[in-house]
Amino acid sequence: MTILIKNGTIITAIDSYQADLLIENQKIAMVGTNIKYDPDQIINAEGKYILPGALDAHVHLEMPFGGTISADSYEAGTRAAACGGVTTVFDFVMQNKGQGLMEAIKGREELCAPQACVDYGFHVAITDLSDDVIRELEDAVEYGVPSFKTFMAYKKSGLMVDDGVLAYLLEKSKDIGALISVHAENADITERRVEKYLSEGKTSAWYHYKSRPEFVEAEADKRIIHLAKSLDAPVYIVHLANKEGMEEVTKARDEGYEIYAETCPHYLHFTNEVYKRDDGRNYVCSPPIKGKESQDSLWEGIKKGDISVIATDHCPFQSEEKDWGIDDFSKIPNGCMGVENLYPYMLSEANQGRISFNKVVELCSTNPAQIFGCADRKGSIVPNIDADLVIYDPQKKFTITQEKMHSDIDHTIWEGVELDGYPIMTLSRGRVVYQDGEFLGEAGWGNFVKRSLKR
């Protein structure tokens, strides 16, 4: 279909202006005023904003973790994404011990392809760096997966890699055109603190936070930044949540190093006080939500430009699974929902004047497309790129409830949060997949996004 969107205000990362927009063959064909064309469909966006679709650079769909599997399938997670204005997700392929990288990637693609309702890409979490895996790093990059994740946490779960592996991957990434991302928390300190609190009978969700507080994350942030600076390699820190780490990122960027930091909406909205609530276990994630001082620092990092990306770490579990930890916080599966709330929450903050709409587009769309190598297809509103678009009504009031969400989760940590403004339509490659609260897409529509970081 050809679609002409008329009378709206286009908002990109760098400007805002009145214009019409023509979509043809799944691409943006033309942007301009008074476009003369006889399309199949006309969408009147008067009084509305037209934004590039968001890219959620950090989701975990159908991921085995903590004795279960994250509760959103690829279909459910990407359906929720579409309904929140997210038109591309980057999911994590978790390499099993002894498994080859390409085997892991292709296995997840076979699972994802028939289910995905929006476009998708992958990062690979490396847990076992054998000689065979080293030889496959470049194969993965050539296949279109040039980003690899490492864990400095989850030692007992077998996810953690040591500092030698981290250093090797950082150096190797420069040669093959890859980007290393890191979950930064000190595993040894965390594990000892968990044992200490449990031995003292301190078992509530509050002690999840106490077992891995600000300094535990900050130490790992400083360590990985030091390694990256020493090796002159870029690095991407996922879900940054603490003030000291934020300060270290700012310092490194001021010195000219290629350091990227991502944070998440739940760190920007909630504080560690949630862990004192009766339902505190629903908010258990790692790194945990921190105190107000850290939250303020993250917002300051956003305004300074030292936070590069807002993503969600969408990794939800059902209430009954969270309840495994009622009497032992260490048994609570770590993860919260967020893919449907990312864009609406950040745009609401812009609507209330906290930051600009342009900054939200930069953080949620343009930057992740550029950093992860798909800016030729995603993240902006210019001719010849995919027509991934969101129409946003700044006047619409919306209260988040679980019943209004579109994933398979039986609760939401965002219950009752009131938003100013809300997306009323999402287009994925020129197809309307969400409109006025209703999902209109289908499983299997989403395409694999092949990416390249080679310069």
Q: What helical percentage do the residues reach?
A: 25-40%
Q: How does the major sheet shape up?
A: 9 strands, mixed
- What is the C-alpha radius of gyration, as a whole number of Å? 21 Å
Strand content: 15-25%
- E-strand count: 19
Helix-strand category: alpha/beta
Q: Give the termini distance in whole angstroms.
A: 35 Å
| Shape designation | globular
- How many separate helices? 13
Unreliable spans: none
Average pLDDT works out at 97
Task: Give me a quick take on this structure.
This protein is of the alpha/beta class and 455 residues long.
What does this structure look like?
By secondary structure, the protein is α/β, with parallel strands linked by helices. It contains 13 helices and 19 strands. It has helices spanning 74-83, 101-112, 131-143, 163-176, 187-199, 206-211, 214-231, 243-254, 265-269, 292-304, 319-322, 342-351, 357-371; strands at residues 3-11, 16-24, 27-32, 41-44, 49-52, 54-59, 64-65, 68-69, 86-94, 119-125, 147-151, 179-183, 235-237, 259-263, 309-310, 389-399, 418-428, 431-435, 438-439. Strands 1, 2, 3, 4, 5, 16, 17, 18 and 19 form a 9-stranded mixed beta sheet that branches. Strands 6-9-10-11-12-13-14-15 form an 8-stranded parallel beta sheet. Strand 9, helix 2 and strand 10 form a beta-alpha-beta unit. The relative contact order is 0.18.
